[in-house]
Amino acid sequence: MDKRIDWRALCSRAVQRLALELASVACACSGEGHARPVTAMGLRFPSPVGIAAGFDRYGRLARRVAALGFGFNEIGSLTANEVAQLGVMHNGSARLGISLTLDARQASAESRAMLRAAWPYADYLMLNLIGPTSAPLLSQSTRLRHLLAALCEEQRQLNQDGRRRVPLLAKLRCMPERTPFSIAGLLVELGFDGLLAAHDPGPPATAERYRAWQDAQRQAQACQQIEDLRRFCGPDMALLSVGGVQTADHLRARMSAGAELVQVHTAFMHQSPWLARRLLR
């Protein structure tokens, strides 16, 4: 049994916990954040900058992040058992997204039940297709199509019966020269409301990878993928971008490329809780 310690991952988790603590204190001490409202998927967001899933996984900050200038906060990714423990999170004006862990070991009915349980708490729902438990689905095209179609049908029924509309999106890995056009096409066909392009390989969020995103060529690659996805998906699907956004110039470039909303994660860990205000200036 390999008992080697991944010190980089441990350090990343420690930095994230500290950043979460500081953000919680800052939310309590701050007034209304800098507002730059945008509308996407029929929802009004106080600003186009949001917090990516994985930072505030269980919703400790939830909607309160509006005080820091964030327009939305995506909690999760959550399993079915974690969704069952959710409570109402009213405080604050930021939109709340819930990222759902799709597990290839689960039956379609179980995934539908998880979406149904999360729907009352969310302003939008995100299906996480980049996690390790969902990886087998990406190589099973027929099964993936049936699952996504079933979840779309569940969302439509809930929206109709609940008399409010909760958009449904999916998170896809978008690495250099590997834009996921095939799955993006499936999302368009099924009528998904949006697509989140994740331009980073995922945790741990190390300092080395944070510095790597300061390379102009890497930023340009992410923008090019957003441009390509915008042309491919058309104007009706919302595009979100996450990965490497650290400065106001980065934010402007992603939005100019076609992203309506942009998420941050590692930059929130390495900069101050007032990151969104600086990006929006």
Describe this structure in words.
- The protein is an alpha/beta fold and about 280 residues long.
- Helices cover about 40% and strands about 15% of the residues.
- It contains 11 helices and 10 strands.
- The strands form 2 sheets. Strands 3-4-5-6-7-8-9-10 form an 8-stranded parallel barrel, surrounded by 4 helices. It has a two-stranded antiparallel sheet with strand order 1-2.
- α6 links the parallel β7 and β8 (about 195-200).
- α3 (about 110-120) runs parallel beside α5 (about 140-160).
- The longest helix has 23 residues, at about 5-30.
- It is globular and about 45 Å long.
- The mean pLDDT is about 95.
Topology:
Layout: H1 7-29, E1 38-40, E2 43-45, E3 49-51, E4 72-78, H2 80-83, E5 95-101, H3 108-118, E6 124-128, H4 135-138, H5 141-162, E7 168-173, H6 181-190, E8 194-198, H7 207-212, H8 216-233, E9 238-242, H9 248-257, E10 261-264, H10 266-270, H11 275-280
Parallel strand pairs: 3-4, 3-10, 4-5, 5-6, 6-7, 7-8, 8-9, 9-10
Antiparallel strand pairs: 1-2
Helix pairs in contact: 3-5, 8-9
